[in-house]
């Protein structure tokens, strides 16, 4: 009997250990599987890239395909037809970036709680309430109308799926092993969801609800002072001498009186540091008579990188550049004849409508003198370890009701529908596929007509020596200030009044100045006959860029590199001398005096080893917080004035109610807070030095630019990158944001197209691959890699680490 | 001699089985050995421990050297383990313990079966 008990006890013990080690418990990976030398994480260590390449098996190609990888691990795909080309692009992209591709889609579709459980549910609900999946489904339906595009999109999807089906646990990307889940099939819908995720990042920003609240609190005069739409200092993207030779569509003003309530807390806006810069130089402004295109998108610094560089070649394509994993074609790049790059064309394309329901069951809502029917969609969330959660989302013809009694409503009668341009069906992929093979400026014009959003400033250059910039996107037609504040969903007059026709778009071609440029600033001066608005136009980078381009008569490639890596702080240049002049030097001790003198002599370049940017940035942050501390007492979501507006107010208004610090009994004036915060800054810098065991607060250490893994896993991330710059600086590398791809293309009639590029990451998305983060160091130092770009694969052969011909099976 | 033989059988089977079947299938062999060989518990536990432990140790060292610890050096942070060597030792040791337990499981099965046999024998005498 005792022996039987012993046996049963051991049996239970071993079975329990095996079951525990085969499953993920409390976020610990399934240790047995995970540690297995043959299939566990060990297999994700890649020193020899052939281990990855040799797995490539192109099952469904119709004709011969050649794949080469160069030393940067950039794929060069040579196919005999377009379907094979995009099939292989899908396959190869997934080979290096599968986990990231799927994870981004899980995030935008509000499905992260399937992996992370309850803690991701709030975020998932927000995602679904924004209506992105609903919008992607609409776009998917629309896409079937365009047979050519859908054929190539499908080829891409098949390529991804053939790679996925070749996988077993052993060669899953490591994140699947850590989180213990499996890759799913890729679909066309996911490819459209990817575009929605770009829109979510780039075009969703708005402050309508916050500003409605602020207008009520501050009154119109103060509101306009603190949040002006336009500044005289603006140097717009479209130069002032461009004339608008069209008859604009008329807009009607509307009755602005509405009743509304505020949601408890508004959903997060996209990061304000998402931005970019691009410019093109015409042959008459370049030293060697070539046309140049430079493009630098500033986005969140993540690993795996947001971009994957590819070279695509078929009889109709020979295109290279940055691709988005999950999307066919090249997004920012070049071919033999043209080059193009985008920056975000910020514009208010999100509006909020206050909805009045007929009764509690919310089946009908008021619109004019009618009652319209709502559509109820029940969203299902398969929350890990907790089962299914349901959320009912009500759709009106104005969009999904994001805030209601189920979500962020504070139990008040808040019903706000979100009207967002990204909810409309769209055909962006058509634009990119056309652009990828465009030969001249006319082709580019034709391609951009199909680009609805997220609206972008496309700068382009051609081999013929032409340059141009077009602000492409579908923009709602609005009367003055329409949609700046909450609108009345029951009043038909408040609806968007149509769209600005493509023929009335903002565009500049071959200007006399010899350059075009953009850096997320105001698109155009006030003479443009259509009302446009954004709460978030950038006020520094655009001016610096234009001034740099103006100041150099003839540019060469080195000048262009210098501009992309320019660390000049326009903000410091404009405000620092003024606030320094207010410092009472008679009361400064020796240490304070040292900083004061250094700052006075600073040339405003935020270089890596300089201590002045650390001091200035901290001082400005503290000062800014002190000035606007009144806002922190507000009940609902709000925003604070921009840095630019703040610095203008400081310089121009001597007595201002906001200068007072609420925490003290006295009433402070500007001089008081400038002096007071100078000392606080010094304390803060000294504290930092003490905590970090440093004698100097060098900008790169103090700023600590980090490129973080999407899961935030520290050992998969790179911290303390040696890079200068900051937000509002052309080299926009802040803590977590920065130039996510630097590209320069040279086009010359008499020679082959040449290009240089670098990005803060590596081609492989695998943290165990030596090419995971190998670009970061060069990127920080402003070094570029010459890109291998030839029409014939044979010319690459001496420079590639892998080459193989695949035959149709 | 029998002890070393058992270690070798355990080690070899682990080495080959692991490359094809799920990791827990390597527990089958120490179990069978425990049933077949009639040795004491300690001896069985040790041959399981050493057999499986060594096989895992060898495999892990091998793959980690091949990849210059490129991935293991990152995973130790995730698992809060100080060094790659410790990670390898912990892992092999855990595998060894499981091997040992599995072998004495086999042994205990043998024991519990043989006892029943004896009992039925008594009833006839």
| Helical amount of chain A | 25-40%
> What value does the Rg of chain A take, in angstroms?
28 Å
Report strand % of chain A: 15-25%
The low-pLDDT segments of chain A are: none
The count of helical stretches of chain B stands at 5
Descriptive labels:
heterodimer; A: 809 residues; alpha+beta; 10-stranded mixed sheet; 7-stranded antiparallel sheet; 22 helices; 27 strands; globular; B: 125 residues; mainly alpha; 80% helix; disordered C terminus
Task: Give the gist of this structure.
Chain A is 32% helix and 18% strand. Chain A is built from 22 helices and 27 strands.
Notes on the protein architecture:
- The complex is a heterodimer of chains A (809) and B (125).
- Chain A has 809 residues and is an alpha+beta fold.
- Helix content of chain A is 32%, strand content 18%.
- In chain A, strands 20-18-17-9-8-7-6-2-1-27 form a 10-stranded mixed beta sheet, with helices on one face.
- Chain B is mostly helical.
- Chain B is built from 5 helices and no strands.
- Chain B has helices at residues 2-17, 28-36, 41-66, 72-79, 84-124.
- Chain B is elongated and about 50 Å long.
- The chains are: A alpha+beta (809), B mainly alpha (125).
- At the A-B interface, helix 1 and helix 2 of A face helix 3, helix 4 and helix 5 of B.
Chart the SSEs and their pairings.
The complex is a heterodimer of chains A (809) and B (125).
Chain A (H helix, E strand, L loop, with lengths): L1 H20 L9 H5 L14 H4 L11 E6 L4 E5 L2 H27 L4 H4 L4 H9 L2 H12 L3 H19 L8 H6 L8 H15 L5 H19 L48 E7 L9 E10 L1 E2 L4 E6 L4 E6 L8 E4 L2 E7 L5 E5 L9 E4 L2 E4 L1 E9 L3 E10 L2 E5 L12 E5 L7 H9 L4 H8 L7 E7 L4 E6 L14 E2 L17 E4 L5 E4 L22 H11 L5 H8 L5 H12 L8 H12 L10 H16 L15 H10 L17 H23 L6 H5 L4 E2 L27 E3 L2 E6 L6 E5 L17 H6 L3 E2 L13 E7 L3
Parallel strand pairs in A: 2-6, 5-22, 10-19
Antiparallel strand pairs in A: 1-2, 1-27, 3-4, 3-21, 4-23, 4-24, 6-7, 7-8, 8-9, 9-17, 10-16, 11-12, 13-14, 14-15, 15-16, 17-18, 18-20, 24-25, 25-26
Helix pairs in contact in A: 4-8, 4-10, 7-10, 12-13, 16-19, 18-20
Chain B lengths: L1 H16 L10 H9 L4 H26 L5 H8 L4 H41 L1
Helix pairs in contact in B: 1-3, 2-5, 3-5
């Amino acid at each position: 009997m005792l022996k039987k008990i012993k046996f049963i006890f051991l049996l239970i013990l071993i079975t329990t250990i095996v079951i525990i080690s085969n499953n993920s418990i409390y976020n610990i990976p399934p240790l047995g599987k995970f540690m297995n030398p043959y299939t566990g994480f060990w297999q994700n260590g890649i020193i020899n890239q052939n281990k990855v390449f040799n797995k490539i098996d192109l099952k469904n190609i119709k004709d011969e395909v050649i794949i080469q990888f160069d030393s940067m691990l950039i794929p060069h795909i040579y196919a005999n037809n377009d379907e094979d080309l995009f099939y292989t692009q899908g396959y190869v992209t997934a080979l290096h970036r599968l986990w990231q591709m799927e994870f981004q889609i899980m995030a935008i579709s509000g499905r992260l709680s399937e992996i992370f459980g309850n803690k991701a549910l709030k975020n998932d609900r927000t995602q679904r309430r924004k209506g992105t999946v609903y919008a992607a489904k609409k776009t998917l339906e629309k896409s079937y109308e365009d047979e050519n595009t859908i054929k190539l999109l499908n080829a891409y999807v098949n390529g991804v799926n053939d790679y996925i089906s070749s996988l077993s646990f052993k060669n899953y990307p490591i994140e699947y092993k850590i989180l213990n889940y499996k890759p799913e099939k890729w679909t066309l819908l996911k490819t459209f969801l990817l575009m929605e995720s770009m829109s979510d990042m780039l075009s969703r920003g708005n402050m309508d609800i916050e500003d409605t609240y602020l207008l009520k609190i501050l009154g119109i005069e103060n509101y306009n002072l603190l949040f002006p739409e336009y500044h005289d200092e603006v140097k717009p993207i479209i130069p002032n001498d461009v004339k608008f030779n069209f008859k604009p569509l008329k807009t009607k003003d509307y009755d602005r009186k509405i009743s509304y309530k505020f949601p408890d807390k508004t959903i997060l806006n996209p990061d304000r540091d998402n931005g970019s810069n691009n410019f093109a130089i015409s042959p008459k402004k370049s030293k060697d008579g070539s046309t140049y295109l430079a493009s630098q998108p500033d986005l969140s610094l993540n690993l795996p990188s947001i971009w994957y560089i590819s070279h695509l070649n078929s009889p109709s394509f020979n295109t290279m550049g940055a691709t988005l994993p999950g999307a066919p074609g090249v997004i920012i790049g070049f071919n033999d004849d043209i080059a193009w790059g985008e920056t975000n064309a910020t514009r208010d394309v999100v509006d909020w409508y206050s909805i009045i329901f007929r009764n509690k069951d919310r089946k009908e809502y008021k619109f004019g003198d009618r009652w319209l029917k709502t559509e109820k969609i029940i969203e299902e969330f398969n929350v890990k370890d907790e089962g299914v959660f349901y959320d009912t989302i009500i759709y009106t013809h104005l969009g999904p009701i994001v805030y209601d009694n189920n979500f962020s409503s504070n139990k008040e009668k808040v019903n706000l529908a979100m009207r967002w341009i990204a909810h409309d069906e769209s055909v962006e992929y058509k634009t990119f596929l056309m652009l990828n093979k465009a030969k001249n400026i006319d082709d580019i014009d034709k391609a951009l007509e199909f680009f609805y959003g997220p609206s972008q400033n496309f700068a382009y250059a051609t081999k013929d020596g032409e340059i141009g910039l077009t602000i492409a996107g579908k923009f709602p037609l609005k009367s003055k200030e329409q949609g700046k504040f909450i609108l009345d969903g029951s009043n038909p007059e408040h609806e968007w009044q149509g769209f600005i026709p493509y023929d009335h778009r903002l565009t500049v071609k071959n200007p006399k100045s010899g350059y075009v440029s953009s850096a997320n600033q105001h698109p155009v001066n006030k003479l443009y006959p259509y009302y446009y608005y954004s709460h978030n136009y950038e006020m520094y980078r655009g001016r610096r860029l234009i001034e740099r381009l103006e100041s150099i008569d003839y540019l060469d490639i080195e000048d262009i590199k210098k501009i992309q890596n320019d660390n000049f702080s326009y903000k410091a240049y404009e405000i620092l001398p003024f606030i320094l002049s207010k410092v009472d030097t008679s009361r400064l001790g020796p240490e304070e005096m040292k900083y004061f003198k250094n700052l006075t002599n600073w040339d405003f370049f935020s270089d890596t080893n300089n201590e002045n940017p650390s001091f200035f940035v901290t001082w400005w942050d503290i000062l800014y917080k002190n000035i606007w501390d009144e806002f922190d007492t507000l009940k609902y979501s709000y925003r604070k004035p921009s840095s630019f507006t703040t610095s203008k107010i400081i310089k121009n208004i001597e007595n201002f109610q906001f200068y007072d610090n609420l925490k003290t009994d006295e009433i402070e004036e500007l001089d008081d807070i400038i002096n007071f915060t100078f000392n606080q800054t010094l304390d803060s810098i000294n504290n930092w030095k003490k905590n970090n065991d440093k004698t100097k607060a060098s900008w790169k250490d103090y700023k600590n630019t980090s490129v973080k893994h999407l899961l935030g896993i520290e050992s998969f991330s790179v911290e303390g990158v040696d890079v200068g710059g900051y937000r509002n600086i052309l080299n926009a590398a802040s803590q977590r944001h920065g130039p996510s791809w630097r590209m320069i293309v040279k086009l010359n009639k008499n020679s082959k197209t040449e290009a240089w590029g670098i990005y803060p990451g590596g081609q492989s998305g695998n943290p165990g691959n030596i090419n995971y983060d190998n670009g970061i160091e060069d990127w920080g130092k402003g070094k570029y890699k010459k890109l291998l770009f030839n029409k014939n694969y044979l010319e690459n052969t001496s420079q590639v680490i892998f080459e193989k011909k695949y035959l149709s099976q | 001699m029998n002890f070393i033989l058992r270690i070798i059988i355990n080690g070899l089977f682990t080495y080959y089985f692991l490359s094809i079947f799920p990791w827990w299938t390597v527990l089958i062999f120490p179990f069978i050995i425990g049933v077949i060989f009639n040795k004491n518990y300690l001896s069985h536990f040790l041959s399981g421990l050493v057999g499986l432990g060594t096989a895992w140790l060898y495999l892990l060292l091998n793959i980690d050297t091949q990849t210059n610890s490129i991935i293991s050096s990152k995973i130790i942070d995730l698992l809060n383990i100080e060094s790659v060597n410790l990670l390898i030792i912990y892992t092999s040791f855990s595998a060894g313990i499981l091997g040992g337990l599995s072998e004495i499981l086999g042994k205990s099965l043998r024991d519990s079966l043989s006892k029943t046999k004896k009992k039925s024998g008594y009833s006839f005498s």
